[in-house]
Amino acid sequence: MRIAVLGSPRSWYLADLRRAAGDRHVIDSLPFAEVAASINPQSAIVNPKSVSSAGTSLHDFDAVLVRTMPPGSLEQVVFRMDALAQLEAAGTLVINPPKAIEVAVDKYLATARLAATGLPVPPTAVCQTVDAALDAFHTLGGDVVMKPLFGSEGRGIARLQDENVAQRAFALIAQLGGVIYLQKFIDHEGCDLRLLVIGERVLGMRRRNPLDWRTNVSRGATAEPMDVTAELASLAHRAAAAVGAPLAGVDLLPGRDGTMYAIEVNAVPGWQALSRATGTDVAAIVLTEISARR
């Protein structure tokens, strides 16, 4: 099987996939920033291979694995998703599907999908003006987490508990033309659960950070193995299905109130920390899942 990985050629994940593939599969790295497409009505039936990267046709691969979502303008991001959709429509397996990536990368849309599925989510408010954000700040109890609408690994997240500080933060976001995304701070025990959904399988780890309320490993949290119960696996599958991602990182937060909150679904999930914490060859499982979906 020949797989194109859209991501950095220096990525740990590319090296891990190549290690797991051995001589059974060919793993090629191609840059997302060089994705191009063409439309030729006269030759569409004869030659539909119109999506490429760095001059290489993506249609020549058995599957395309999206391993990064590089920053870009709105036009660039929309085009990349459109090109992947065109590739998928022509019959190439894309993991994750572009529609799933579009939903998961948008925190508001993903949270709305999770809530519509009946999963518990933190009370959330999204607005565009300082006055509306201040009203939401008070409605949410004066203790909120402000997150960028797009982003991961805890970057750009801030906990706001002071009205004056919150007002200055809201004013800055509004001045930059951004969207103010707020969630009520959920009191927790300093840990959360990262569940990795790979098809029907669910792997899990617990992330602890005694020095920071954020539990991302990139922020200094430690990862430890955990038993994935049938209940947790069900929650993870429901969250992944809500965004349409067969490969998904699902973050669950056990609140002190006894509720298991669905915080986020990542459609380009990492597995380095989980693989080390659990001793599981995650890359091999990912490759097996891709093979099964062809």
What does this structure look like?
With 294 residues, this protein is α+β, with helices and mostly antiparallel strands. The protein has nine helices and 16 strands. The chain has helices at residues 12-21, 74-89, 98-105, 107-116, 130-139, 163-175, 230-243, 272-278, 282-293; strands at residues 2-6, 26-30, 35-37, 51-53, 56-57, 63-66, 93-95, 124-127, 144-147, 158-160, 180-184, 191-198, 201-208, 222-225, 247-254, 260-266. A five-stranded antiparallel sheet has the order 14-13-12-15-16. The protein has a four-stranded parallel sheet with strand order 2-1-6-7, sandwiched between helices. Strand 12 and strand 13 form a beta hairpin. Helix 4 crosses helix 7 and helix 5 (130-139) runs antiparallel to helix 6. The radius of gyration is 20 Å and the shape is globular.
Oligomer: single chain
Overall residue-averaged pLDDT value: 91
> How many individual β-strands?
16
How would you spell out the order of helices and strands? EHEEEEEHEHHEHEEHEEEEHEEHH
Work out the helicity level. Answer: 25-40%
Our measurement of the CA-to-CA distance between the termini, rounded to an integer number of angstroms, reads 10 Å
Main pleated sheet: 5 strands, antiparallel
Radius of gyration: 20 Å
Low-confidence stretches: none
Strand order of the largest sheet: 14-13-12-15-16
Provide keyphrases for this structure.
single chain; 294 residues; alpha+beta; five-stranded antiparallel β-sheet; four-stranded parallel β-sheet; 34% helix
In short:
The protein has nine helices and 16 strands.
